[in-house]
Specification:
The chain is an alpha/beta fold. The protein folds into three domains: about 70 residues; about 50 residues, no CATH class; about 190 residues, 3-Layer(aba) Sandwich (Rossmann fold), CATH 3.40.50. The chain contains ten helices and twelve strands. The strands form four sheets. The protein has a six-stranded mixed beta sheet with strand order 7-6-5-8-11-12, sandwiched between helices. Helix 8 runs parallel beside helix 9. It starts with 14 loop residues before the first helix and ends in a 7-residue tail after the last helix.
Length: about 375
């Protein structure tokens, strides 16, 4: 039997790597199609034909079969749909994409240098004190201390020999991610909602993997605000809505008020100024022109209420509209929070930096 080998280069991918790359591309297309599997497959087919992503070793039909074998999609009555495993795959790919985009040497996913009482062990040790958990005893260093004093022949273990590992102080963190789904997120042909959803998916996967006991809620806001499950995130679409930032902050604050976590924070991803509020009668008052003082003042009142309840607001602007920038400056002052402008491609870097920073606090400084 003869085998034909193609020339290998450093850019060559194995069949397994090619399949994983195509599956990740499919995940991103699912975000752009709001979870429409059939539309995403059609886009993938067009891209494969245009850029030669497939070959005789892997046809489009075979790729679809592989996606079904991997449990990412399923076919019912000749219609494809996304599985629970497929939703998890989107989160995992989003997390991988965000961290791969971080520049070397830039701030990112790093541990803090402070130590204290906690649950995560670090390499440094210290002398044992009453109350230290026995499971944190560094046996090697402890025995070495005893041997140095009396030798192996007359081995005795004393309290001063005991050393324990330092631990990082881990604080619980409650986070509400606010996602703007107003019409401007797809206005003028610019897709701002897809990368924003990608960041939200990546953040949720990070928390579920590394901080499973942390609280994370997702609030979307347009004319009104509502709590949605993380499972719905890939399927979210932008509507013909105004931007009711106040309603989003109110709902987020109410959700966080019920949590007993030390750190409470709101991450708000938006591309527009507030343009709507509910008046005292419950009717929607809206004004898309400029900064309406009636809307702005009520929204800033909510930012102050968040500050009083020790809820920090981090605003991530995905546009540079002067009205948006002016409003966010006022909101940041009122809340004493943080605000960032970022290009869509590095939006995730800022969010992950902030999340990791806010989880770790120096013991004794809280």
């Amino acid at each position: 039997m003869r085998y034909r080998y193609s020339k290998w280069t450093s850019e060559s991918m194995t069949d397994e790597q090619r399949l994983e790359s195509l599956a990740s591309l499919f995940s991103y297309l699912l975000l752009q199609t709001s979870g429409d599997v059939n539309e995403a497959l059609e886009w993938l087919r067009q891209l494969a034909e245009e850029y030669g992503l497939l070959n005789e070793n892997l046809t489009m039909e075979e790729l679809i079969d592989k996606l079904k074998e991997m449990g990412i999609i399923e076919e019912i009555n000749e219609e494809f749909s996304l599985t629970t495993k497929g939703i998890q795959k989107i989160r995992q790919d989003a997390l991988k994409e965000i961290f791969n985009s971080l520049r070397k040497g830039s701030v990112g996913y790093h541990e803090m240098p402070q130590t204290g009482t906690g649950v995560e062990r670090v390499s440094e040790t210290k002398k044992w004190t009453p109350g230290e958990a026995p499971t944190n005893i560094d046996l090697t260093t402890t025995l070495t201390n005893a041997f140095k004093r009396d030798g192996i022949e007359d081995f005795t273990l004393k309290e001063e020999d005991l050393e324990v590992y330092e631990t990082e102080h881990m604080t619980s963190c409650a986070t509400v991610l606010m996602l703007d789904i107003s019409h401007s997120m797809i206005l003028y042909g610019e897709d701002r909602i897809t990368p924003a959803k990608q960041v939200a998916l990546a953040l949720s996967e990070l928390i579920m993997q590394k901080y499973p006991k942390d609280y994370l809620a997702l609030v979307v806001f347009g004319d009104d605000a509502k709590l949605v499950s993380l499972a719905e995130l890939p399927f979210l679409t932008v509507g013909p809505y105004h931007t009711n930032t106040r309603a989003g902050l109110q709902l987020a604050r109410n959700l966080l008020r019920r949590r007993r976590s030390v750190n409470k924070q709101i991450f708000m991803v938006t591309d527009g100024k507030p343009s709507a509020i509910f008046d005292d009668s419950g009717r929607l008052y809206k004004n898309s022109f400029g900064l309406d003082p009636r809307i702005v003042n009520k929204t800033l009142d909510e930012a102050v209420a968040c500050r009083r309840e020790k809820v920090a607001i981090s605003t991530f602007m995905v546009a540079r509209d002067p009205y948006l920038v002016n409003f966010v400056e006022e909101l940041t002052k009122a809340n004493r929070g943080r605000a960032y402008y970022s290009q869509l491609q590095n939006l995730g870097e800022f969010i992950f930096v902030d999340y990791i920073r806010n989880r770790r606090k120096k013991f004794g400084a809280m």
